[in-house]
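Recall the central idea of this unit: under ordinary conditions, the amino acid sequence of a chain determines the structure it adopts. In this exercise we apply that idea directly, starting from the sequence alone.
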Amino acid sequence: MNSNENPEIEIENENENLEIEDNEEIGTTLDELLQDEIIQYIFSFFRNTELRKVVFVCKRWSELALDPFLWDKLYISKPTEKKMKPIITDFLKSIYLCNCGSKEVNCLTLLHKCRNLRTISFEVVPYTWINEISNLLQACPIESLSFVDFSCNVRSESFLKNCSNLTNFSVSRPTYNAYQDEPFQFRFLSNIERLELVKVRLSDSDVQQLENLENFKKITYLNLNSSLKNQNLNGILLNMPNITFLDISGCHLSLQIQWELLPKLIELNLSNGLDSQQSLLSDNFFENMKNLAKLDVSLSKYSFKLRNLVELPQLRCFLSIESNSNYSSIDRGDSIILPPHCAKVDLRNYTFMKEFKPDLPDSLQSLFLFSCGLKTFSVSSVSPYLSYIDISKNQLSTLPQDFGKNCPNLLELNCAYNSISLIPDSFGQMKRLRKLSFEKNKISSIPDSFQYCTSLNELSFRANSIINVPLFFNKLTHLNSLDLSFNQITKLSDEIFDPLELLTELSLEGNKNLKKLPKRLTKKRKQEKITINFFQIPPPEETNNNYYYSQEKKNCLIL
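Accordingly, the structure predicted from this sequence is:
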């Protein structure tokens, strides 16, 4: 949590988020703030709730007269006093220290009282304070400790060697490290039989210490993000047969991996992978990844063939967000065949696709084809669960006539930045559609069947060629936001907006021939913003405090 210049108290739980800062209403100093009735009310408030988190960012800890027996989590950020009020008790289960900037802060001297401590997390701790923290940790009762996160310079080997109940361990090396030349020792982890999650973001020399360690058979989660460079991963994976999640994103790594070592792998993250040899996901990968449900190769340079995806029968999520470079990790011109259980496909910026006509599996829910160079797009059969489609920024001029028929349960559709001139009549069959964008196309008219899309909340026809807004727009009673800006609209009927009680944002700027607004529209109270042509349309006669001239948009009047 970032600290501010002024003292601040933030109290959070699952249902409430109260935030109090110094201001004129509740006092100009921390002393006045702590004596204020509002603070007293907050104290009484969380005495009667199941508070799960208390956060303090302030300058004078000793004056915080709070009852520590109500807490089970403590977050500390930038304390500045030499001595902190003894607020660490038997009831405390979690301690988080972030950006503590003074080694004189001795707030952990009472750690020996924390008999129920489950979680310890340190972030951005200066190297001048390392030895002090390490010594304090030695006195901490660690029998019940299950989660440890050291995103700092703290040397934890000796402290953790007796953590018999530890299940989650996370460590990363900051930019400046006092132990930069000394590799992190992981051998102590071999004594922890219950360990399930290991997250490491260190250097090559550190990660090498993970090789050939025993008792890692229960580990299911391994995150080595940005930690590997030209290193063989097989030695690390040899004793981890139960891994279900593996993150080696951002690594300079050859993919000469014995994938048979990971028979239970469910999620694999290869994003931002850099490999000078441009490794190919081999046949060995597809043969052994029969349980893989999520594959992320976004912005990586590991090449593969789209048609091989069908060999991953359990794949539910496939992400391949290409960079805007001439090199593509997917073979150009390769056809795509989706696995039968696939629920999400993301091929954004894969600019060599040209057309998309695969047989979509019934399980597909989300399809992202942003900036793929598509000239044709079709949904060849009914997709009962398809909810999200993004085909924006392509080269589409038409949509298939059966588009709405084959996507009856679609919730969001983004067709922006294409050259579409005609909306199919079948759009009226998408009665669950909530968000639709045809921004920056060539649409001049809207079909009558559009009136049946009565669930629409957000609708954008920005930058098209629309002249007339159909009267049936008054049937879209769930609209919250309507963007008709930069068209060729000349007139708006009063009857269109009268039933739209939920409409709060309306954009009409850029319609140079629109001379006036409907009178009923200007009298509606629920609208929060209307943008119109400032120079073409004069302000309404009955202005009130809700109208003001925007300094940011000098050509608009905003309501």
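DSSP finds ten helices and 27 strands in the chain.
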